[in-house]
UniProtKB/TrEMBL annotation:
<dbReference type="InterPro" id="IPR040963">
    <property type="entry name" value="MCR"/>
</dbReference>
<keyword id="KW-0349">Heme</keyword>
<dbReference type="Pfam" id="PF18509">
    <property type="entry name" value="MCR"/>
</dbReference>
<keyword id="KW-0091">Biomineralization</keyword>
<dbReference type="InterPro" id="IPR036034">
    <property type="entry name" value="PDZ_sf"/>
</dbReference>
<protein>
    <submittedName>
        <fullName>PDZ domain-containing protein</fullName>
    </submittedName>
</protein>
<dbReference type="GO" id="GO:0046872">
    <property type="term" value="F:metal ion binding"/>
</dbReference>
<dbReference type="GO" id="GO:0016020">
    <property type="term" value="C:membrane"/>
</dbReference>
<feature type="domain" description="Magnetochrome">
    <location>
        <begin position="223"/>
        <end position="248"/>
    </location>
</feature>
<keyword id="KW-1133">Transmembrane helix</keyword>
<keyword id="KW-0408">Iron</keyword>
<keyword id="KW-0479">Metal-binding</keyword>
<keyword id="KW-0812">Transmembrane</keyword>
<keyword id="KW-0472">Membrane</keyword>
């Protein structure tokens, strides 16, 4: 019995010494591997001269860094979205704006339309500086038969000088019940002034003769514009001096800009040679052919 206990104690002591020895040896290896001064002996740990660089090539990165990186939590970033100009909430639509007073823009009388000759128009048309009157834009009916032309500048009606649209309206009101009157105007010539390169004008007078009483000129303001519309001309002051702001003041779309589809035609007409218009290609390119 004593001999068995002695053997057991001896074996336990041997096992303890082995564990202590292995631990001490491992701790020494660890020190040599991590000590910068002992980097030259690292090949002993890596198995026969593989080296640190060899280990980097031999061991996959994914295996070394198997733990997934910690992702930063997503933080919502406010983004300013552009407003759709064609889709505006009804609560944000401004009501139509009608100025209490607006400048007159155009007059109509006996088939002519005219507007006030301004400094801007004088520069654009190369008319003499300081010239004032009613610039004729278009003539039809009585005005055309009398001999007025587009570009003429009316300076008097029945001898009464006119320089503004309101003045022109007043002058025509004075002869509204007459069937004829005189109109004095300036017409540009082909020659220009050498110093200013502006046209020279010639003074003329003609007779306006109507079938009935001449009546007086009707005036109107500048066309409606939408809120926020870009200015299509040079600056002339606040838009509301001349324009109503909003929608619905004029017919949209303009009927003159609408093209109706060609009507159907019979196969007999399509096969014939008498076209009602010039040759535009096969009839079926534009027309529905009926039997």
């Amino acid at each position: 019995m004593k001999q068995e206990k002695l053997i057991s104690v001896t074996m336990l002591a041997v096992a303890t010494l082995v564990v202590i020895g292995v631990g001490t040896q491992g701790f020494g290896w660890f020190r040599r591997a991590t000590d910068p001064s002992a980097q030259g002996t690292a090949s002993d740990l890596l198995g026969g001269g593989l080296g640190l660089e060899g280990l980097r090539r031999a061991v996959p990165v994914a295996a070394v860094n198997a733990t997934p990186p910690v992702m930063a939590a997503a933080v919502p970033v406010p983004v300013a979205l552009p407003l759709d100009p064609d889709v505006t909430p009804s609560s944000q639509v401004a009501p139509n704006y009608l100025p209490a007073t607006v400048q007159l823009f155009e007059v109509h009388w006996q088939g002519l339309d005219g507007r006030e000759l301004t400094a801007e128009l004088r520069r654009k048309l190369r008319y003499p500086q300081g010239l004032e009157g009613i610039l004729v834009g278009e003539v039809t009916l009585t005005a055309a038969r009398a001999g007025l032309l587009g570009g003429d500048v009316i300076i008097a009606v029945a001898g009464q000088p006119v320089t503004t649209l309101a003045g022109f309206q007043d002058a025509t009101r004075a002869i509204a019940n007459l069937k004829q009157t005189t109109v004095t105007f300036l017409r540009k010539t082909r020659s220009t002034e050498p110093a200013s390169n502006r046209f020279t004008m010639v003074r003329q007078t003609l007779m306006i003769v109507g079938d009935r009483e001449l009546g007086f000129a009707q005036a109107e303001g500048a066309p409606m514009i939408k809120a926020g519309d870009p200015r299509p001309h040079a600056s002339r002051g606040p838009c509301t001096q001349c324009h109503n702001i909003g929608t619905g003041f004029e017919l949209r779309p303009d009927p003159d800009l609408i093209t109706l589809p060609p009507p159907p035609i019979s196969s007999r007409l399509a096969a014939g040679s008498n076209r009602p218009h010039e040759d535009r290609g096969p009839c079926e390119a534009c027309h529905v052919i009926t039997r």
